[in-house]
Design brief:
Number of strands: 10
CATH class of the largest domain: Mainly Alpha
Oligomer: single chain
Strand content: 5-15%
Low-confidence stretches: 362-371
CATH architecture of the largest domain: Orthogonal Bundle
Largest sheet: 3 strands, antiparallel
CATH topology of the largest domain: hpI Integrase, Chain A
Radius of gyration: 28 Å
Helix content: 40-55%
CATH superfamily of the largest domain: Intergrase catalytic core
Distance between the termini: 82 Å
Length: about 400
Amino acid sequence: MVKHLYQRTITHNGKKVKAWYFWFLDKNGKRIRRTCGKNGKPCLTKKEAQSFIELLDDNELLKENITFNQFAINFFTESSFYIKKQKLKGYEYEAHTLKAKQRILDKFLEKFGEKLVSNITIGEIEKWVFSLPYSPGYLNRIIAVINIVLYELYRAEHLDKIIKMDKCLERKIRNKGILYPDEIKRLFPDTKEEICEVWRNKKNTDEENFTTAVLIYTILTTGMRGCEGRAIQYSQFIQKDVILINAMLNHNGERVEHLKKGNEIDKRWRIAILPEKTIELINKVQRVNQNNGENDYVFSLHGKPFSRTLLNNKFKKICLKNGINATERNLSIHSLRYTYNTMMRHQISGESLRMMLGHLNPKMTEYYDRAKITDKLPLLLQNKDVINNMWN
């Protein structure tokens, strides 16, 4: 096999240098380009390049001339080398996340699967991606998936250099709206009877409507995420006014014993301090399961935890019924977390608020490494009076 040397100007260690490359013809007569050098270190002299290509095995070169299908057909499945490698590095992926990435990759492979990876150009990929009828946000998801595959191709030495697409410029995302104090009082009056009146609808009983309202009020007055509030079981109560938030419902509605961005090693558990009004309302929620079993949820509908979509829809409908346009103001269950943060940030210390919301930055990560969250319960309980004054 004849290998032809040529030079290209590249950036290496921050400097512009002339590096040596070579090309050869594969069995189909197509020109294949390769870099002279390994592990990101190019050959900078012709003598180095000649020595490098003399040691190359022709058969191995031809074997490496693979298609995208051969390299990436099941790239984001549990059994793939890439996912196994990522797990060994400590990365965990939800099943729905892998499925979403694989769906995107499958679209890419429909277009480029039979193409040789050595013949790909960034221009070809960009032309295809930007012709797709999707929002900038979804196009960025596609670009992120493609970039992962391209980088792994480079690491496997199927590409001479890193090929990376730039993301689209997304439109500015609307800020989440928040509820105002007078609206909170309107939606969550003091007595069970009044709450039932506010939350009444034809599809559900008063008891079901009351349970829905108390769940939403609990999420509001503790700063929980919706997936955490929907997962609360009676076993999580450390004492009547303290909940250990140690579980959530995942995308599939399954209960997992870690919080958002957590895993089996770093669970990211935290504590919620309940105001007196929240405690009183929870005590009035009809207990469905009395056996303290594994499904003893505090809030359930027809014997099952609330679904994310159902809870959001009920919240928006009740808001609209009471003169609050949730759609126009971008209000959702997650907005309640923003509301909690806005109302509490000037009332208690930043450290206590971060601990109760579970906001982690590098300093807080170090903090959690050296102290169990339950050890800080006395500190958090010092804020009980402030919490009661704010929400009762």
